[in-house]
Design goal:
Elements (H helix, E strand, L loop, with lengths): L4 H17 L6 E5 L5 E6 L3 E10 L2 E8 L2 E2 L5 E2 L2 E8 L6 H11 L3 E6 L11 E7 L8 E10 L2 E10 L3 H13 L2 E2 L1
Antiparallel strand pairs: 1-2, 2-12, 3-4, 4-7, 5-6, 7-11, 8-9, 9-10, 10-11
């Protein structure tokens, strides 16, 4: 079949429009944060970007939320992902960073791991943790990963309530496995 140049332009334009509006889009959305030196993937259509908080010139917090989850107690919760990124950190390492952050925001350690498919490099450390804020009626449960790459510290936290954690655990683990350093 022979196509002329204008016919090819129409196909290219149609393909560009389909990509922009998401027709045939992948099941996952790859995310690369500015100056973070890593990327990860979120399930398409289940997670959305909320906001970026610029703590200072070197520290940024990125927030994402998932679709609401209804627990067996009929409580609706909004699972979230919080990524704390600090650039130009000097000689800090994952363990010092984790301890420093723990002192600022203590939690109950359910599990600690330094060897896991969820950790993006050999110096990373991860936790499954629990906490309950002063005004909270339910405890939160989360995965927390700490890693350092190219003078950037990262705290990667996937959280929901303790009651709905089992419903999101597999998805959280799938997201953590997609973290790649660049």
């Amino acid at each position: 079949m022979k196509m002329n140049k204008s016919h090819n332009k129409i196909h290219i334009l149609a393909l560009a429009v389909a990509i922009i509006i998401g027709v045939g889009s992948p099941l996952f959305a790859q995310i690369t944060l500015p100056n973070s030196h890593f990327q990860f993937t979120l399930p398409e259509g289940k997670w959305k970007y909320l906001e970026t908080i610029n703590v200072d010139a070197k520290t940024h917090v990125y927030l994402y939320s998932s679709v609401p989850v209804v627990s067996k107690n009929n409580d609706t919760t909004l699972p979230f992902l919080r990524i704390y990124v600090k650039n130009d950190i000097g000689k800090d390492n994952s363990y010092d960073f984790a301890m420093n952050r723990f002192m600022q925001q203590p939690f109950i350690i359910v599990d600690e791991f330094s060897s896991s498919p969820f950790l993006p490099n050999k110096d990373a450390i991860g936790y499954i943790g629990l906490y309950k804020g002063e005004n909270d009626t339910m405890r939160s449960k989360f995965y927390m990963l700490y890693f350092v790459h190219k003078s950037t510290l990262v705290e990667f936290r996937l959280e929901t309530t303790e009651e709905s954690f089992a419903q999101k655990q597999s998805e959280f683990e799938q997201i953590m496995k997609t973290i790649t350093l660049n």
